[in-house]
Request: fold
Amino acid sequence: MIAEQTMTTAEIAQRFNTLAKEGNWNQIQDELFAENAVSIEPPGAPGLQSAEGMKAIKQKAKDFEQSVEEMHGGYSSDPLVAGNYFAVAMGLDATFKQMGRMKMDEIALYEVKDGKIVKEQFFY
Amino acid sequence: MIAEQTMTTAEIAQRFNTLAKEGNWNQIQDELFAENAVSIEPPGAPGLQSAEGMKAIKQKAKDFEQSVEEMHGGYSSDPLVAGNYFAVAMGLDATFKQMGRMKMDEIALYEVKDGKIVKEQFFY
Reply:
């Protein structure tokens, strides 16, 4: 029997970084998130809302994808890792069906517990 | 007449980085923080508490300094900048008068408005 090793925060951040730079956000959710993870948007943010649990988080991602008419560009920085947290600067340039073309930049902060991301929080 | 230029978030982050690497935290507060800035610690964090306004934030810094018996080391990473925010990984290794020697690492997140830091929030 081979015991499954719990990934460290640095290992999670590294895997996140590899997948984010491929734009593989679905795989990040499937592979790195805990089932009861929460996703926190800023209070009063237009459009996106906080979500609790992977079912709601995946629905949120799907709603976002469907709101986009055309994606012009995006980026995700290398992560900063400290303790059980890692932070990433990310952004996108997209034309939305309802709002036209917008650029946005944000700090995304991830909390890791028992080898899974249990919280993502966006600051913009 | 020369108009005073409002510093951008990237400029604030760069100046913060220079001063942090010198360990000049008092100068960071004096030069870069807004008078009504807030400092947020994690809910339930032992020891340190959140503070509102520069008077309370400076008192908090003073209390922290006085709690330290000996500082063995510390670091502050280069900042990640996105929109009105920047994030830094930082840590220290210190012997505290009450608690003995401890190492800690955290993500510190700064929000900038009108060329000043209006919020610092620590994640650990």
Notes: Chain A has one domain: 9-123. The beta strands of chain A are 33-40, 51-52, 68-76, 80-82, 85-96, 100-113, 116-123. The helical segments of chain A are 9-21, 25-32, 54-67.
